[in-house]
Design a protein that fits this description.
Layout lengths: L1 H51 L14 H7 L2 H33 L5 H9 L6 H12 L4 H8 L13 H26 L3 H9 L4 H12 L1 H16 L2 H8 L10 H10 L3 H29 L1 H4 L1
Length: 304
């Protein structure tokens, strides 16, 4: 009797193992095309770039280890571009997250003309980058609409893209372009918060602030992480708008890391270009890992 039970258990375990093996093989087969595509267009080229950053030239291919990185860090243009990119992201990303969250909370309430507000914030998503730049050129040109308004109040005209306000102009452009999409993500996350919790908090007399801190922000933590990462990536992509507005060598505060990489690519300095790309990737990975750790600790009680 005991031996039959053991045999039946062994058969069941073998069947479970075979089923798991078949499922694993099927999953691998389904994922294989995507993995091959990602490997071919992302993973393999990235390691090829890493190998470029460790040699002296594509022709001689002498291994120099960290010499390219040291030369890059000692380069004044690279340090300026890194500082400008960092300062822009530090200003633009928190504003993009906080303002879009505030707009989503505002549109969650019962306010008049809600659909018009939603359309207003979503309309920049439908505007091409070239059109956005054209609008900003009309507004912030030395003879543009903003300066005409300033002159009416007796002040002097400002060359916005060549002044200390240039980064502020690009921050406003970045927010105008990205707030709508972030707002939609937050509105979707707010609609998924259990209504029972909010109703219970209302019954117990909790105010808006307490509900937001102790309930809403907890359930919004995964969306906060996603929106922050998305805004961080978009802050690096603002180079397109800056390049169309100012060209290869803009005013000091608008000279971004992508300007530096674009200019050394034109000079065929592939080693420094590869080193800059590797450092940029490492910085992005470190920031994203820190954000994941913070979200995991903050939203752990919600998942439990």
């Amino acid at each position: 009797m005991i031996s039959r039970l053991k045999v039946s258990r062994l058969k069941k375990n073998a069947e479970r193992f075979n089923k798991r093996s078949r499922d694993t093989i099927n999953d691998c087969l389904w994922l294989a095309p995507s993995f091959l595509g990602v490997s071919m267009f992302y993973i393999v080229p990235y390691f090829y770039i890493v190998s470029f950053s460790l040699i002296d030239s594509p022709i001689r291919r002498n291994f120099v280890f960290l010499d390219n990185f040291i030369n890059l860090i000692n380069n004044n243009a690279f340090r300026t571009a890194t500082a400008n990119t960092f300062s822009f992201s530090v200003i633009a990303v928190p504003l993009a997250v906080l303002l879009s969250l505030l707009i989503a909370l505002m549109l969650e309430a019962r306010i008049p003309l809600k659909s018009y507000f939603r359309t207003f914030f979503l309309s920049p998503l439908m505007v091409p980058v070239a059109s956005v730049v054209l609008i900003w050129q009309v507004l912030f040109h030395p003879n543009g609409a903003i300066n005409e308004l300033i002159i009416l109040f007796g002040a002097d005209a400002i060359d916005w893209m060549q002044s200390e306000y240039s980064q502020l102009v690009v921050v406003v452009l970045f927010l105008w372009k990205n707030l709508g999409f972030n707002m939609i993500l937050f509105m979707a996350a707010l609609s998924n918060i259990p209504k029972e919790l909010l109703e219970t908090a209302d019954v117990e007399g909790a105010g808006f602030f307490n509900k937001f801190v102790h309930i809403k922000i907890r359930y919004l933590s995964p969306t906060l992480l996603f929106v922050t990462i998305l805004s961080l990536i978009n802050s690096f992509k603002v180079f397109r708008e800056v390049y169309l507005l100012t060209g290869d060598y803009p005013y000091g505060r608008l000279y971004l890391i992508q300007h530096f990489m674009n200019n050394i690519f034109r000079s065929l300095d592939y080693q420094r270009l590869a080193a800059a790309a590797v450092l940029m990737t490492i910085a992005m990975v470190i920031i994203i890992v820190i954000l994941f750790i913070a979200e995991n600790r903050f939203g752990r009680d919600v998942e439990e």
